[in-house]
């Protein structure tokens, strides 16, 4: 058994609809999925299929119309503060320096201010951002902001992390660097992760399992177990299995023909 500080997350029969004018529009329909302790699970689905909605439900910001959310077997539907969440745009406090952004996350997680300052300095050194510790977030590049934002989510010390397309705004090279960096940090302490991306390659590179969602109202079309070992080799994308899995997901998303062009 590998070491893990993660919790299990289970979504059982989640339904959610919104009113659009007078019409009730179903966004999520009977979603059933789980993340085991220390597992990296990715949701992939068409734009507007309700992935961000699902995160708001898991975070307790909204309640589902039906179904239950369990963490470590205990019902937590509608409860806040149990997961750490990293949104699509880096969520940093613009009025705090980089080191204060990090130490405030630690203080929120219960660390004393003095210890938080020391730990923040250690972490910034580890992620090669010591040089910008005293700067304010707007001075940082997109990739740097993303690293600080991810570190904040990690240091919140929740056992489930929900990451909503964290690399979508980055260029391809920075994105590949960030994926490697994320895997290294994650493999060191195995928090349970639920990750959203539009990139099939990213999903295959990072995950233990993938859930492919249908267009809204979203439902799980298929669960795919990723056969590549850990630590994951940077060149897995060259293997025939990778190409086959990519084709399978493309076909499920209705883009299979486009992939053959
Ligand atoms: N508060 C709300 N009120 C009404 N409709 C909403 C609300 N929140 C989301 N929706 C609708 O629910 C659907 C799913 O939205 P959501 O943002 O969850 O999708 P998504 O899969 O995260 O999209 P993307 O991949 O483009 O980020 C959309 O049609 C959206 O308009």
UniProtKB/TrEMBL annotation:
It holds the Pfam family ABC_tran. Residues 9-240 form the ABC transporter domain. GO terms for molecular function: ATP binding; ATP hydrolysis activity. InterPro entries: AAA+_ATPase, ABC_transporter-like_ATP-bd, ABC_transporter-like_CS, ABC_transporter_ATP-bind, P-loop_NTPase. Keywords: ATP-binding, Nucleotide-binding, Transport. It comes from the Bacteria. The keyword Transport applies. PANTHER family: ABC TRANSPORTER ATP-BINDING PROTEIN, TAURINE IMPORT ATP-BINDING PROTEIN-RELATED. This is ABC transporter ATP-binding protein. It comes from Cohnella herbarum. The lineage of its organism: Bacteria, Bacillati, Bacillota, Bacilli, Bacillales.
